[in-house]
Amino acid sequence: MLKGFEKTSVPRETAIEARLAVEDFHAEYCAVLDSGEIEHWPEFFTEQCLYRVTEYENTEYDLPVGLVYAEGRDMLRDRAVAISRTQMFAPRRMLHLMTNVRILAANDEEIVAQSNYLLLQTLVEGATTVHQAGRLYDRFVRNGDALLLKERQAVYDTALIANDLAYPV
Amino acid sequence: MLKGFEKTSVPRETAIEARLAVEDFHAEYCAVLDSGEIEHWPEFFTEQCLYRVTEYENTEYDLPVGLVYAEGRDMLRDRAVAISRTQMFAPRRMLHLMTNVRILAANDEEIVAQSNYLLLQTLVEGATTVHQAGRLYDRFVRNGDALLLKERQAVYDTALIANDLAYPV
Amino acid sequence: MLKGFEKTSVPRETAIEARLAVEDFHAEYCAVLDSGEIEHWPEFFTEQCLYRVTEYENTEYDLPVGLVYAEGRDMLRDRAVAISRTQMFAPRRMLHLMTNVRILAANDEEIVAQSNYLLLQTLVEGATTVHQAGRLYDRFVRNGDALLLKERQAVYDTALIANDLAYPV
Question: Which residue of A has its CA nearest to C37?
Fold first, then answer.
């Protein structure tokens, strides 16, 4: 469990509506990343945002360090450019599988959710392997019918992660 | 992105109803395949249908080739018989995990959807391994409360696919 | 297909409501297990319950044997204690991915469902690997807005399962 992401009591109807919205968000977000349009990735976030990818152990000891840490859309844009250039040297396909969406809190403005993810990687001429697996702790703001990420903390289990490319989750 | 499968604007209520219907379809379809009842597989398709399993690279260059190509239920029936005979020589268990359903278009007659899949394979006395992973591009027609597949294009990332058995996705 | 878990006809609205409830249950149940709070695991079951984890082949020949067999919450409590002690010697992270929920029967008191699962394991300093993959056959009783498991039969495909630790699914 990550601090600030405790489960609160949410009315059933609200929770269902929120879960369906989060699942829709995941599907759009992953479709963009998995088709390699990483330049559109920052558009899923609010201008002021926090994005962190970190190992489970760091969260247990409440350490702020992580594989990736970005504050604000501009840092995500920089990161997107860096990744798209790295990819040219070692092209690969990524596939995100999102499951187990759990609504931790929800009101008219915000949704807090936990989800599980499996990120598969396929190198050119290679097999598909588990690149990263873990939990997402998300804080969304409602933006009309859609959602925007104000905070995403991806907490992965995989200790021996290939750190040559930290593709977004 | 596959040609003919562009995301269009779908009213929220329609999209939710369509997604729930597609998820139900996936669960039924996969339950039949995973329990080895491959002879019932063609029943999920319309009489005139297109079924293709192809590598990501082929779709990028818009090549029609693929690992599997079938037009019409009869070709699927032939294929089902061929697979059930092959399986006798090398029995294995298949498990389909379907996630990330995304509604691309939906109206009273048709639903167009994209989904992610992970197909796991377990050989007798063997470990469970990733057999195939990728995206499904589906065109469904409504058939009462249920759906039928008019077109399924499975676009896999896995380049080194075991081609001794192309089990349906 | 497991005996007693045949698909029956369920009205569409009932099936959707039931599926959403089962998916919520899975998310809560797995969040508890994946965060290592195994002492809370038995709370998801009714006092009189059946929990079995078994290989696909055993169900095909209708054999009662399995990797794990427990009757009643007390046996689950014993098991939880045993596992938490074993884990101290070889700490690992588990991650459950639940997909393909299929409603087999549902009424005001009970829901019978089938789901697919992928259980990933990450040893300390190790990679993430497939620990177990298979199907769940569940019988839930309604408990207010929530559900409790009266019966769970996990039927896995993975034949070469690491039997040093049979972590719950």
Answer: A1
| Greatest Cα pair distance in chain B | 49
Measuring CA to CA, which residue among A31, A44, A168, A23 is closest to residue A102?
A: A23
Query: Between A and B, how many CB-CB pairs are < 8 A?
Result: 64
Torsion of the alpha carbons at B84, B86, B87 and B91, rounded to the nearest 10:
170
Evaluate whether B165 touches B158 at the Cβ level (below 8 Å). Answer: no
Residue with tokens 């018989």: B81
| φ and ψ at residue A162, rounded to 5 degrees | -70, 110
Q: What 3-state class would DSSP assign to C83?
A: helix
Of A98, A122, A128, which has the smallest distance from its Cβ to B100's Cβ?
A98
Query: Distance between CA C108 and CA B73 in Å, rounded?
Result: 39
Domain C12-156, second-level architecture:
Roll (3.10)
For residue B131, the chain C residues in CB contact (below 8 A) are none
Domain limits, chain B:
12-156
pLDDT along chain A (169 residues), means of 10: 92 96 98 93 97 84 77 95 76 92 97 97 84 96 94 86 69
